[in-house]
Description:
This protein is 6% helix and 39% strand. With 319 residues, the chain is mainly beta. Bound molecules: 6-O-phosphono-beta-D-glucopyranose.
Amino acid sequence: MSAADKVAPPPLPPAELCTGVHGLPKVLLRESRGSSAEVYLYGGQVTSWKNDHGEELLFVSSKAIFKPPKAIRGGIPICFPQFANHGSLEQHGFARNRFWKIDNDPAPLPTNSTSKAYVDLIFKPSDEDLKIWPHSFEFRLRVALGPGGDLMLTSRIRNTDAKPFTFTFAYHTYFSVSDISEVRVEGLETLDYLDNLQNKERFTEQGDALTFESEVDKVYLSTPTKIAILDHEKKRTFVIRKDGLPDAVVWNPWDKKAKAMADFGDDEYKHMLCVEPASIEKPITLKPGEEWRGRQELSAVPSSYCSGQLDPRKVLQGC
Length: 319
Ligand SMILES: O=P(O)(O)OC[C@H]1O[C@@H](O)[C@H](O)[C@@H](O)[C@@H]1O
């Protein structure tokens, strides 16, 4: 067969439904320049985001249990309708351990990207869910990869009930980092936070970038729309852009708590950091028919992208 006779393989679809761990359905997203993402219908949870070199950017525990009723440990769990134990529901609400559906007829969403690598999911409460949280809603989640490999999550929650309801929310994003001791977070300095390790008491952060040398579990309040995680060893900076989500949780369990979690490796705390765009301090109330939107957009750029050094000011201002 001559070279001319060879037929190029058909391009891989930008969004494909396939089977993941333990036969759980997942959607694989592929952007034409090589970046990719995976979304499990269980939890509507992103479990992988890779750049165009195939490097994984999110942390998923090697001990993660991909089986209901436990939520998957890592990626981007959705905390709804309750963040953590801020209410009477189970920890982080129930959206993260329910099966979502593919939404084949999503309400239009303005998009400034031509990428076809996206999926729309929908979660509506079952009769059982309504017994524990008696409010009907439609939760639409779009997960999209931008042409440069950015990962975008847009949540739209509509009150389809006859009475108002109130909720808290977080994108519980687990970033993969080379070494937690080498990581700095920019954008949260000087802000007030509630310290979950000290009875949710309110403190004010010092003027320096955050660095990590022990367990941290803080809810930063009224945060800027842009936060950066600088990974010195990897020479990579994650930039989080967010909308509709004033708070940001920063969590790392460190060694003792890591050992106490069955679905988390003893030393894995060294290689992850959760920075979670959220709405916690001021819960959101929706009247019947009203819709709320919350969005997070993640990019991973080489630190050298901003003038050859780690210069957080330039990252935060955009280069
Ligand atoms: O083990 P879970 O339920 O996934 O929660 C993990 C952590 O999630 C964080 O968002 C909370 O601030 C922590 O308090 C909590 O420990």
